[in-house]
Amino acid sequence: MTPATTHTPPARSSTAVRRTLTLAQLTNSIGDGAYLVTSALYFARIVGLSAGEIGFGLTLGWAVGAVAGVPLGHLADRRGPRGVAVLLAISTAAAVASFTLIRSFALFVLVACLYGAAQTGLSAVRQALLAALIEPAKRTEVRATLQSTLNGGLAVGAALGGLALHFGSREAYLTILAVDVAGFLTAALILLRLPAVAPVPGGTTAPVRTGTVGTAGERAITQTTPRLAVLRDRPYALITLINTVMLFYMPLLSLIVPLWITQRTAAPAWLVSALFLVNTGGVLLFQVRVARRVRGLPEASAAVRHAGLIMLAACAVFALSAAGSSAWLAGAVLLAAVVLQVVAEMLLASGAWEISFGLAPADKQGQYQGFFGTGTALARMLGPAVLTTVVIGWGAAGWLLVGAVFLAAGAAMAPAVRWAERTRPAQSPPRTPSR
Description:
Elements: H1 14-47, H2 51-79, H3 81-99, H4 105-133, H5 136-167, H6 170-191, E1 205-210, E2 219-224, H7 234-246, H8 251-264, H9 271-292, H10 297-320, H11 327-358, H12 365-394, H13 396-422
Antiparallel strand pairs: 1-2
Helix pairs in contact: 1-5, 1-6, 2-3, 2-4, 2-12, 3-4, 3-6, 4-12, 5-6, 5-9, 5-11, 7-12, 7-13, 8-9, 8-12, 9-11, 10-11, 10-13, 12-13
């Protein structure tokens, strides 16, 4: 086949596609925000599960999601990402609806696994859909727009969840679950408005470069690529691992910082909410601006490296917040730390999106995004236990150790990306929307 290096623009304008993707993101993120705020207390107070049972079920659910991401992404490549995204949005809605019916621990674990698989798969397939419908130069910017929308929707949903927590009744919790179900079903309907993307037949072949790059000995042969090629792509696996380490920042504001504030600093507990708003507002206002500066793999690698450096600074400032007995001083230090953390978060996100899209074959975006997305599931699974042990257990030394790990991971991204670039096969033909 003749290799292609450019992406054919979709039939609809990228502006219309962006608007549709953004609306779908907004509808289900509002429900997600409400669910995230209330779900743990619903399972504990209404269903009657213990904290250990809830933790085990949710951890196992995200573990199943991490495993399911690649095959579901592969399914999107072979069947078309729009249809699979709609199916997974409906499946997620069904899982949330099933939470209203659970009366036992075993059933809770089963539904949590369905929820984790559907959520993780939906995230991967949406990235494949974005890659198929948006030209490469705009993918990271559009992904940033979706991330900003996600944060805005989560904030609105969290406010709705707060109302349910205020009333605390079974009916209030069930109403929140119904809102989440409606959000995913609405998102499924909105995704149907996008143009269908032609699926890639199984067993495709692609020209693969052999020999030393840039020498006369370079030659091209055609070979059949394995169905789950990403599982054999060692450079991409290394990049995913590095990104997973960087994603360990995720439990900081939701778990580690609240525990740190109440156990190690003189700052008031209500500051947790203010710091969360600073983070959410920062992403909402500035993520797209940061992403616009990342155009290409070198800039993306530099963004991740800078993110590691700034995360080290943020961890050092968090450690300083335990010094002294002034609540105002501790609050000011914590605010400075969160500002540094959100800057690092936005740089990491922009760089990671560009890298994950840019190094994935055009005809395998689904499985590659599914594999890359396992980092999020793993960070959700392992991050709380690791960071609680190191930071809360070791204090300031723990913060500095975590910061050093972020620094090392950020620095490792650029050589990993260069290795991946050297091993990329020639591009497969672009996928185009079905007429």
